[in-house]
Amino acid sequence: MATHHLASWAHNLLYSDLPQDVVRAAIKTFYNWAGCAVGGSDHPAATIARSTLTPFFGQPTASLLGTSYSVDAQHAALLNGIASHVHDYDDTHLDTIIHPAGPVASALLAVAQWKGGFSGKEFLLALIVGIEAECKLGLSVWPEHYDVGWHITSTTGSIGAAVAVSKLLGLSIQQTSHAIGIAATQVTGLREMFGAHTKSFHPGRAAQNGLMAAIMAQGGYTSSLQALEAKRGWANVIGATKPDVQANMDKWLGIAQETHGVGLPVGAATGRWEILRNSFKPFPCGIVIHPVIDACSRLHVELEARGLAVGDIQSVHATVHPLVLELTGKAKPRDGLEGKFSFYHGGAIGLLYGKGTPAQYEDAVVQDPEVIATRDRIRGTADSSLAADEARVVLTMNDGEVLQSHVLHAVGSLEVPMGDEALEAKFIDQCSSVLGDGVHAASQACWAIVEAEDVASISKALCTC
Amino acid sequence: MATHHLASWAHNLLYSDLPQDVVRAAIKTFYNWAGCAVGGSDHPAATIARSTLTPFFGQPTASLLGTSYSVDAQHAALLNGIASHVHDYDDTHLDTIIHPAGPVASALLAVAQWKGGFSGKEFLLALIVGIEAECKLGLSVWPEHYDVGWHITSTTGSIGAAVAVSKLLGLSIQQTSHAIGIAATQVTGLREMFGAHTKSFHPGRAAQNGLMAAIMAQGGYTSSLQALEAKRGWANVIGATKPDVQANMDKWLGIAQETHGVGLPVGAATGRWEILRNSFKPFPCGIVIHPVIDACSRLHVELEARGLAVGDIQSVHATVHPLVLELTGKAKPRDGLEGKFSFYHGGAIGLLYGKGTPAQYEDAVVQDPEVIATRDRIRGTADSSLAADEARVVLTMNDGEVLQSHVLHAVGSLEVPMGDEALEAKFIDQCSSVLGDGVHAASQACWAIVEAEDVASISKALCTC
């Protein structure tokens, strides 16, 4: 039932069914993903993957964003997916901590450019369908599936990508069901890989898995038509540690509950849309650090306004949710990657730079004596009465003066989302060194996707060829 | 520890460490795999995969066996892997029901032909290393991992293929560890796909996953160095339903137990070799049916010798292990695929043809009135005192005479393995319609692999180009 239900919903959904805020969320999701894919294109995880896999590249029909390379669509999906995730700077569906765009948008843009002739509206509809599919499936197995050690972005992402590409290419309900099955049987992503190149391989491989599944299903390759719900199908196997996983999946997919506004009402425009719960990171690091960076960035502004220097600070005291110390308590980070797991570093760059962009996570910044000296003056206290996106930071100056900042909801949360201007600043910051003068045209092309006659033109705007 | 231990063992093993019976088992495994890959090359699961993926093929450096096509090595690994498994006729490691050769040999032959210059001995050493790796890992998680719904051939096969290709290409221990990690994070294969094309996709994709992992690791792509044993690594995640899975893996990998003759002693030639426990199927169907086909084939000979016809049989009574009725109790199979899950059909073709080759599983044979009439006279009784590879069949003729056959160990079991002649007859039967006059040269080339200066020549003997 679940497989058929999901395939039917995806097949039947019309662009005219989409509320305007859902379309708007999809544009922002695409925009943020594109900036991340361009911005990550020169990271070693992307460049090593590209160089090692070069002997396998097929006909060049799809662009590697941020580069002058064209490759076959499968490898474009893989490599753009890797680049989009490698800085941990992409979108987050906060209820499941899935990063939805990597698998889905990477697969879709590769197929759209390869085949050609797809409008922005067709693309956005497929993007929304894929993201809803992966996030609903994520909710079905959350949190046990993640807790046991699966990287939920890619384990659900293969299926999301398959559904999205099936939608874009107009596959039948039965073909879409087979595509779901071929994708579901490729369960990619162990959390043990966090911290290594292979972490960003996960959303890339999920994009490729899903693309391949849809193309094979379109040509008649058969799978199970009960891939999600069967006794030895996806939910029961990868959610084996979750009680009642099937009932939970039925709930989230809206089976027999269409009238309750939950799940995926077949072909209807009401119900809960997961894409509205997608968020964008202002800082390329673990999301629990964000409130500290936000609070310290506000204090940076106040220090400047009052003519005070960071060197005048005697001590910094941050009160945070307990998870912050547990997950990001690295007091002496040695390089950029370790800096992403240090709230001390987050606080220091907030105070010193008033922001946290990829530049503040370069090795040289993490090793800078002034940054280290600031970091060493920061102390943290866990307080479980604080929310996860809340922080209080108190500065005591050398002359005894006290400055305070209390962030109730960090920027980038659902309550205080990044606005279009902030997203654009992030895009420009990530892409300008890669795209040069073309960065503004690229930004405009991405913002205007809904009007695009052929989204292949956007791929071209995002590369240097 | 487990990841490093496995990588070290693989890296250090020398051809001179291999006992002669292990080399002999590897030759037979390769020979049987090659015949299956050629024989399955025109099955729709292979031809649909080939045609749908054609737009992605890279430089043609590796042959699709049984065809005139050359493709990039990744797609050769995938497509030869699919073909080798599609008739359910490949090898079986009976302790885990892993089909070891599909993932490992498909990856290795593709790489060997692509890169060129690998001798038969180098190839066999890598084949043995890969098969030991996947079967030991399979034993580590057996049976819970299979019971919950994973297709153990491909979930372990990706890693086996990665280790094998790493060995062939001479990767360092650290590179091999990274390759294990990149492969381990791609957990492919749900049992729900049994009965569909996607079942044979599993070993093919495992071959491709492992090949890709080794190539990426060789170029510096990083993964976890504790991918197998970490808290959120392979064994704990995919073996989450098995108690003490880590201790069990240590046991099977021979960690701290090198002196007990169990596991994988580093660089030594003693210990238990899983490849010696690999078996070959005389019949392309579920292995539990084999004793019935064997017993009925013997009765076919006896009927012929005594001038009796199958039409003279009044009733057939088979006493079998309970699993036979449970797994293969399909009394009215409608086509070849369903015939593979019908011990009634197995009995009928044994009596009528004295054999069970792919020809006896063609749709036309399953639907033949004489076959149906024979099938309908067969009754089965479960008897748990029988072994799984044992069967008793009693024929009652129309004149009241009774003929009996008692198979203690079916042909193809470890006790009564297929001899070289039987394997060769199987190879010729599978390949002659595909390779034509070239079939004998192909057979000779495969048997002589240990003497080959460059195994690329064997790839060429197995295709029609």
UniProtKB/TrEMBL annotation, chains A, B:
<comment type="similarity">
    <text>Belongs to the PrpD family.</text>
</comment>
<dbReference type="Pfam" id="PF03972">
    <property type="entry name" value="MmgE_PrpD_N"/>
</dbReference>
<dbReference type="InterPro" id="IPR045336">
    <property type="entry name" value="MmgE_PrpD_N"/>
</dbReference>
<dbReference type="InterPro" id="IPR005656">
    <property type="entry name" value="MmgE_PrpD"/>
</dbReference>
<protein>
    <submittedName>
        <fullName>Uncharacterized protein</fullName>
    </submittedName>
</protein>
<dbReference type="InterPro" id="IPR042183">
    <property type="entry name" value="MmgE/PrpD_sf_1"/>
</dbReference>
<dbReference type="Pfam" id="PF19305">
    <property type="entry name" value="MmgE_PrpD_C"/>
</dbReference>
<dbReference type="InterPro" id="IPR045337">
    <property type="entry name" value="MmgE_PrpD_C"/>
</dbReference>
<dbReference type="GO" id="GO:0016829">
    <property type="term" value="F:lyase activity"/>
</dbReference>
<feature type="domain" description="MmgE/PrpD C-terminal">
    <location>
        <begin position="283"/>
        <end position="443"/>
    </location>
</feature>
<feature type="domain" description="MmgE/PrpD N-terminal">
    <location>
        <begin position="5"/>
        <end position="241"/>
    </location>
</feature>
<dbReference type="InterPro" id="IPR042188">
    <property type="entry name" value="MmgE/PrpD_sf_2"/>
</dbReference>
<dbReference type="InterPro" id="IPR036148">
    <property type="entry name" value="MmgE/PrpD_sf"/>
</dbReference>
